[in-house]
Specification:
Low-confidence stretches: 470-484, 502-518, 536-545
Largest sheet: 8 strands, antiparallel
Shape: globular
Radius of gyration: 29 Å
Number of helices: 16
CATH superfamily of the largest domain: ATP-grasp fold, B domain
Oligomer: single chain
Distance between the termini: 81 Å
CATH class of the largest domain: Alpha Beta
Strand order of the largest sheet: 14-13-10-11-12-15-22-20
Structural class: alpha+beta
Number of domains: 4
Number of strands: 35
Length: about 625
């Protein structure tokens, strides 16, 4: 058995591998770039080696540095994780040539399945069903256009060396083929250094179904059933599950047998995934499921397979790499329940899913489900790498319960101030088509903006937040007094006026903000997190205060003033921006009115509760 292991990766997959290695008594070595000096995988490993600057091309993609680190730390083996160099046959061979154990498939297998056209030709020869199309060497545009006409529109142009949705174009009509081909080839050249493409029939109602396979050096190959990864956004997987909804036993048996046949065709060793595309227009049928490609590595979504089979796939990888036979035979593997995984990204759905970088000042995920993560509270989300910060995996008795467990866990996610996609994931899970299992790869595109979460916190939530500032019950009933009290709260730096209802049965003592703690707290709901702070209280013991007073919520510096004295403003209009606690806080008008007093000057330092702007209500 391997006794020491270097992980040539970062983030959650590095932490995932370290966890299993530690359980097996294997010493672990991490590698890290400048940006990852304080990363979780560095903290968890027994030893860590710095390998370069923050850009991956200067660190995690430099095979020579990784091999040198393994030799220097006397590691016996290298596990590549996924991404980076995991499917680089030259790196795999270099590891072997250095006298180290490569925890992965043979370099020849990686090469055989690395190009989509060659892989499909190989699979067709092995009797594995492939999508109708052209995979030949002739790349003349006129010739390719003729092949597209023969296949029938719509067709899909795909870069043979592609991945991650790059170098791929759907073409609906012959008139669009030439431009789409040129665009696809330019992107393929820029991304992969290879302009070669293949043409295949575009499936109108596609589902992405893949089968986990595993081989050892003794000639044994098994499958660990299928996963459905059809819920995708721009060809990127969003939510994965196992088994696939709507899969009957007969279809599963034929599909998995085809996957094993594919793995045997390349004498496969280790963990691999055979990806298929299914035409789901008439449900899942074996004669409408075709080979798409093979991933010669561990997949991001491998946890759902682990959950339904009870198998630790990383442990299997390490045992097979050590020369042991597979721990289980095919007849010893079975499906138990249902598992579903959501990819939690540091990205802003409201801004086109742009990555959101910065420090995770608050990071707490619901432990009722499995969490695979590479960050912790206080981690910095870097602009240099993929913005996935965690995977949340629910396992339950059936699909409905797994889906519900995952939605509940996402709902309780507490992440701030970095934007994230938890609320978007909840909306996707609750979409009627996904909930019913009627899913295909175009579902999210069709749903469009309906899945983008509304970031506004609702009034009832704010009222409950205000109550948490009190050191006694909310102010009670009193004759000749308004039935509601008001407070101004800062919600992520935006001033918000709320009304707090008064009930006859409540203690009539005046409402005051608690001073412990004075800085505020987090409010969560529907997968979103807000930082709530008091501005000031209006009404009750402070009834004389002006409702339009905009006070500084904390000491800080004014960096922008957006209004002038006497200017008419509308509710929610931006008044000024205050920089405090290394963050920008936007202060807005609480109602329609006029700027009656303006004491804010750009660049000025202000103290807490300093009157910055006074708004007089419109008549």
């Amino acid at each position: 058995m391997i006794t020491s292991l270097l992980i040539a990766n970062r983030g959650e997959i590095a932490c995932r591998i370290i966890r299993t290695a530690r359980d097996m008594g294997i010493r672990t070595v991490a590698v890290y770039s400048d940006a990852d000096a304080k990363a979780l995988h560095v903290r968890q490993a027994d030893e860590a080696v710095h390998i370069g600057a923050s850009p991956a091309r200067e660190s995690y993609l430099v095979g020579e540095k990784i091999i040198a680190a393994a030799l220097a730390t006397k590691a016996e083996a290298i596990h590549p994780g996924y991404g980076f160099l995991s499917e680089n046959a030259e790196f795999a061979q270099a590891v072997i040539d250095a006298g180290l154990i490569w925890v992965g498939p043979r370099p020849a297998s990686i090469t055989a399945m690395g190009l989509k056209d060659a892989a499909k030709t190989l699979m067709a020869a092995a009797g594995v069903p492939v999508t109708p199309g052209y995979m030949g060497e002739n790349q003349d545009p006129a010739f390719l256009a003729e092949r597209a006409d023969e296949i029938g529109y719509p067709v899909l142009i795909k870069a043979v060396a592609g991945g991650g949705g790059k170098g791929m174009r759907k073409v609906d009509a012959a008139a669009d083929f030439a431009d789409s081909l040129a665009s696809c080839q330019r992107e393929a050249t820029a991304s992969f250094g290879n302009a070669h493409v293949l043409i295949e029939k575009y499936i109108q109602r596609p589902r992405h179904i893949e089968v986990q396979v595993f081989g050892d050096t003794h000639g044994n190959i098994v499958h660990l059933f299928e996963r459905d990864c059809s819920l995708q956004r721009r060809h990127q997987k969003v939510i994965e599950e196992a088994p696939a909804p709507g899969m009957d036993e007969a279809t599963r048996e034929q599909l998995c047998a085809a996957a094993v046949k594919a793995a045997k065709a390349v004498d496969y060793v280790g963990a691999g995934t055979i990806e298929f595309i299914a035409d789901a227009s008439e449900g899942l049928r074996a004669d409408r499921i075709w080979f798409m490609e093979m991933n010669t590595r561990l997949q991001v979504e491998h946890p759902v397979t682990e959950e339904i089979t009870g198998v630790d796939l990383v442990e299997w990888q390490l045992r097979v790499a050590s020369g042991e036979p597979l721990p289980k035979r095919q007849d010893e593997l079975s499906i138990n329940g249902w598992a579903m995984e959501a990819r939690l990204y540091a990205e802003d759905p409201a801004k086109g899913f742009l990555p959101s970088i910065g420090r995770l000042e608050f990071f707490e995920l619901d432990g009722s489900v499995r969490i695979d993560t590479g960050v912790y509270q206080g981690s910095d989300v870097s602009p240099f790498y993929d913005p996935m910060i965690a995977k949340m995996i629910a396992h339950d008795r059936d699909r409905e319960e797994a889906m519900q467990s995952l939605a509940w866990a996402l709902n309780d996610s507490k992440i701030w101030p970095v934007k994230n996609n938890a609320a978007f994931l909840i909306n996707a899970l609750e979409h009627p088509d996904f909930a019913s299992g009627n899913v295909d790869t175009g579902l999210l595109q069709r749903a469009g903006d309906a899945l983008i979460p509304d970031e506004a916190i609702i009034g009832d939530d704010l009222a409950r937040s205000a109550e948490q500032y009190t050191n006694q019950p909310i102010a009670g009933f009193r004759l000749n007094r308004e039935r509601n009290q008001k407070a101004i709260l800062s919600v992520n730096g935006v001033a918000t006026v709320i009304e707090i209802p008064i009930f006859d049965y409540v203690d009539p003592r005046p409402f005051v903000f608690s001073q412990e703690p004075p800085t505020g707290f987090f409010q969560t709901g529907n997968g979103q997190t807000w930082w709530i702070e008091p501005y000031r209280y209006i009404g009750g013991a402070h009834a004389g205060a002006h409702d339009g007073d905009i006070l500084s919520p904390m000491p800080g510096r004014i960096i922008a003033v957006e209004v002038t004295a006497g200017q008419a403003v509308t509710k929610g209009q931006k008044l000024l921006t205050l920089e405090a606690m290394k963050m920008e806080h936007t202060l807005t008008a609480p109602f329609d009115g006029t700027v009656a007093e303006l004491n804010a000057v750009a660049g000025a330092q202000v103290q807490v509760e300093a009157l910055l702007v006074r708004i007089e209500a419109a008549e």
